[in-house]
Amino acid sequence: MGKTIAQKIFDAHVIDTPCSGTYVLTLDRVFCHEITTPLAINDLVERGKDRVFDAAKIKAVIDHVSPAKDSKTAEQGKILRDWARRHSIADFFDIGTNGVCHALFPEKGFVRPGFTVIMGDSHTCTHGAFGAFAAGVGTTDIEVGILKGVCTFREPKSLKCVLNGKLRPGVFAKDVILSLITQIGVNGATNCVIEFTGPVTAQFDMEARMTLCNMAVEAGATSGICAPDMNTVDYLWDFIKDEYASKEAALADFATWQSDEDAVYERVIELDCSSIEPVCTVGYKPSDIQAVRDMSGTKVDQVYIGSCTNGRISDLRVAAGVLKGKHIADGVRAIVSPATPLVYKRALEEGLIDIFMDAGFCVTNPTCGACLGMSNGVLAAGEVCAATTNRNFNGRMGKGGMIHLMSPATAAATALSGVITNSPLFIE
Fold first, then answer.
1. What is the pLDDT of residues 13-23, one digit of tens each?
2. φ, ψ (nearest 5 deg) of residue 370
3. pTM for the model
4. 395 CB-contact burial (10 Å; exposed 0-12 / middle 13-18 / buried 19+)
5. Which helix (H) or strand (E) is 336 found in, with range?
6. How sure is the predictor about 1, in pLDDT bands with cuts at 50, 70 and 90?
7. Neighbours of 143 (CB within 10 A)
8. Within its chain, how far is the Cα of 333 from the centroid?
9. CA distance 117 to 112
10. What does the alpha-carbon distance between residue 20 and residue 211 come to, in Å, rounded to a whole number?
């Protein structure tokens, strides 16, 4: 019987099976940020186990509140900063070099096909876009990962999502993943890995695949995953070119992490992407969506473009294309946060920052702050935000606030009109 990508990764990393269906895996990467990791660090110190399994495999960043907004967040940053220095963690990204973790770490080439990755952050599943098994875990698992370089998981079950058809102009990966979550529900992939396949997945670049995998957790999945292909090789080439004689050789090696034709899945879902149009969420669950045209005229107070879902350079290019030569509506405040310093630099070089500023946007440093209502764009009670983020939970961006999730194109068009509206990129 054939195996899925996830099963092959587990087989390559398993060192123990303490009970049926439970696997102890070695870890290729342990990612850390200043919100969840300090709890693990402090506990290790208290237990007299202040050490790391492999400093080269640990990557850390201050990104959720950047710079610190108060004494508490300053202390969280200090704990992570001091710990990184103590253990000579070279890949620690402090203020000025930091960016949103799930955009920064792939950009640095830290994730490869076949890797196992954990982080104390639910959207760690983003890194599955590279053909890796990447999962968000709790503090205890992070603690063990830091100390021992292992983590325990249940047997990997996979849900296969075949993205068929061809996207219409003005429809993006964000619309696709929201449509999928609506089809299967917020618990539809619980305890599973969503494996994205099909012609649309193959056509997506790595940034679009990261958007897909980023929101797999919103369907309850442990991780999302895409089989590596030449797009993967091209994205990673600058980091792996000394390891392979050619891109074709790298691709042949990465072929190890392909599901077998006779692999067994818990469920196979076919999604006709040709019929998808721009969508946005309503209510407080990512599965509650409507077509943007049906939400047309819904007033917003704030527009936010950024996050680990849609703050990459391709997202900013699309939004800037909609905004160029125009200005946001009166009564709307608009914020854009490039996900990493490199994204910011490229946006500057390409004139995108000028476009955003001329349109009336506030351009901030890279940070996760607004996405989870910690800084840089918190909502007041009763306010409505059109956001390119990944969660619309009640109070997520501020107590009493409402979030409508959408693509960067729709968010940009909404900023211009002051009400939810389709972008000119989409022609009905």
1. 999 999 988 99
2. -70, -35
3. 0.96
4. middle
5. strand 333-336
6. confident
7. 21
8. 25
9. 10
10. 34
Instruction: For 37-76, give the secondary structure using H, E and C.
Output: HHHHHHHHHHCCCCCCCCHHHEEEECCCCCCCCCHHHHHH
- Cα distances from 227 to residues 162, 177, 231, 421, in angstroms, run 12, 17, 10, 34
User: Is residue 107 predicted with pLDDT exceeding 90?
Assistant: yes
pLDDT of 428 higher than 80: no
Which residue reads 């099909």 in tokens? 198
Is residue 199 a contact partner of residue 164, using CB atoms and an 8 Å limit?
Answer: yes
CB atoms within 10 A of CB 357: 12
| Residue 229 · residue 248 · CB < 8 Å | no
Return the DSSP state at 379.
Answer: P
Torsion of CA 388, 394, 400, 403, to 10 degrees: 20
How far is it, in rounded angstroms, from Cα 383 to Cα 399? 10
Q: Could you tell me if 3 and 259 are in contact, meaning their C-beta atoms sit under 8 angstroms apart?
A: yes
Encoded tokens for 156: 């990997």
Q: Find how far residue 304's CA is from the centre of its chain.
A: 16
* pLDDT higher than 90, residue 88: yes
Per the document, the length of the chain is 428
Q: Which tokens sit at 40? A: 């693990």
Instruction: Residue 394: count other Cβ atoms within 10 Å of its Cβ.
Output: 12
> Which pair of structure tokens corresponds to residue 238?
């600058």
* Span 24-63, pLDDT tens digits: 999 999 999 999 999 999 999 999 999 999 999 999 999 9
Location of structure tokens 């004139």: 351
Task: Provide the pLDDT confidence category of residue 263 given band limits of 50, 70 and 90.
Answer: very high
Tokens of 280: 């946005």
CB 221 within 8 A of CB 127: no
Asked if residues 419 and 299 have their Cβ atoms less than 8 Å apart, the reply is yes
Which residue did the predictor score with more confidence, 378 or 156? 378
Mean pLDDT of 369-392: 94
**Token digits for 303?**
């527009």
Eight-class DSSP state of 380: P
